[in-house]
Specification:
Layout lengths: L38 E10 H10 L2 E2 L11 H13 L6 E7 L2 E6 L1 H12 L1 E3 L4 H11 L4 H4 L5 E3 L26 H7 L1 E11 L4 H17 L3 H8 L3 H9 L3 H7 L9 H15 L7 H11 L5 H18 L17 H18 L9 H9 L1 H5 L8 H15 L6
Parallel strand pairs: 2-4, 3-7
Antiparallel strand pairs: 1-7, 3-4, 5-6
Pfam families: GmrSD_N
InterPro entries: GmrSD_N (IPR004919)
Protein name: GmrSD restriction endonucleases N-terminal domain-containing protein
Length: 407
């Protein structure tokens, strides 16, 4: 095990670093929602650390599917713990009261999990975080045996070396069990939790709550629409998307070995599934369309979810037969959402309707023909979320990729 100060998880990219330069962005994440009159309450609650950890374990605090990777390094997590220990203010947590004694964590997952891991005395190894995420996606929780496994986690000793030439923190090298009297101090420290609840109207509740947090984002909460969406519309469907998002062929296709910190890759999967299943009812803006579909998808049962997973695998099997470069913009090399969306929808629509896995075969020649098609190109230039462009891309893909499915 690495010695203190040589930890594999000390020097990693900061959470705020731009990690979305791998895709072409159509700017469609902005949500254009119009407000009615709402009765919404925001209640501040100061929970102590012991209560917060108990809430995470017992279920009142829902961190949906752990859908976002834990991205903090040990130094950053240690600074948070030190702040709690010495009584410095910690940024507040935002929760959405979904039901009685059930709160969805909208903002604050990294802080909450840092506290939870410290109390448990375990810190996730950076190389194993995708595997941990996969296990949680499959199990629905973090198994105790995985938390105790040194292959996945290491001891959480605080890393607080101090500035060069400066005084080292007295908590440097300590863990939860060796805090001594400071352990009680830590357990009793409080963190402000803001619980948001919509009282009326009862209908359209999720859309308004989404808009609240989207506006909080513009005020500096640093959340992206899919991060909010993944919490507000948490379901077995969303968990399946998280599972599909770590499929090796999909990671190779988008050119990124690790999931995007702000869940843009998961949003792309949501987008193509939503358009394939419900594209006939597509309406702008696309962000609102995805919200509506994510809400409806909570009703999908295990049989339907398993079929969608198998359909995606069947599509990836076809992708392995062609050059993945066709899904990239030639000038920049970035992954083209528009190209992927059109090809996936065209290739999978018939199979979806027939409840079969006879996905259209893909060939390099047909894909190259689509990519160079003038009408298709025009529909990918600006505003690719426009209804006319979405329809045009799909129709061109259907025409140019049309090959009778095998069997």
């Amino acid at each position: 095990m690495p010695a203190l100060g040589e930890d594999e998880d000390i020097a990693v990219a900061e959470e705020g670093e731009d990690q979305s330069a791998w895709f072409t962005d159509d700017g469609s994440e902005d949500i254009d929602a119009s407000f009615k009159d709402y009765d919404i309450t925001a209640s501040p609650n100061d929970f102590n650390i012991r209560t917060i950890v108990d809430f995470i374990e017992a279920g009142p605090f829902q961190i949906p599917g752990f859908q976002r990777n834990y991205v903090w390094d040990r130094k950053r997590a240690s600074k948070l713990i030190e702040s709690v220990l010495i009584g410095l203010p910690v940024p507040q947590i935002f929760l959405y009261e979904e039901d009685r004694n059930k709160f969805l964590v909208i903002d604050g997952q990294q802080r909450l999990m840092s506290i939870y891991y410290f109390v448990k005395g375990r810190f996730p190894r950076r190389a194993q975080r995708p595997a941990i995420r996969r296990i949680v996606a499959e199990k629905g929780l973090l198994p105790k045996e995985i938390l105790a496994d040194d292959a996945y986690f290491q001891k959480f000793n605080l890393y607080l070396p101090g500035a060069a030439g400066g005084q080292r923190s007295r908590f440097h090298g300590k863990n939860f069990e060796t805090l001594g009297e400071d352990q009680t101090t830590f357990n009793l420290r409080t963190i402000r939790n803001v619980i948001i609840k919509q009282n009326s109207p009862k209908e359209d509740r999720d859309t308004s709550i989404f808009e609240i947090f989207n506006r909080l984002n513009t005020g500096g909460v640093n959340l992206r629409p899919q991060e909010i969406r993944g919490s507000l519309y948490h379901s077995r469907f969303m968990e399946r998307l998280n599972k599909l998002n770590i499929e090796p062929v999909w990671r190779a296709l988008i050119g990124q070995p690790e999931p995007d910190l702000h869940a843009k890759d998961t949003e792309i999967l949501l987008r193509v599934v939503a358009l394939t299943m419900d594209g006939e009812h597509y309406a702008e803006p696309i962000g609102q369309f995805l919200n509506t579909f994510a809400k409806k998808a909570r009703a999908l049962d295990d049989t339907q979810l398993s079929f969608l997973e198998s359909l995606f695998s069947a599509f990836l099997a076809q992708v392995k037969n062609v050059s993945m470069d066709v899904f990239r913009v030639e000038r920049t090399g970035r992954f083209s959402i528009a190209m992927f969306e059109a090809v996936f929808r065209a290739a999978c629509t018939d199979a979806l309707k027939n409840r079969s896995l006879d996905v259209w075969p893909l060939t390099n020649a047909a894909l190259a023909s689509l990519k160079s098609d003038k009408k298709f190109i025009e529909a990918t230039k600006e505003g690719i979320g426009r209804a006319t462009h979405v329809t045009e891309r799909y129709e061109r893909a259907r025409e140019l990729l049309a090959i009778k499915p095998a069997g």
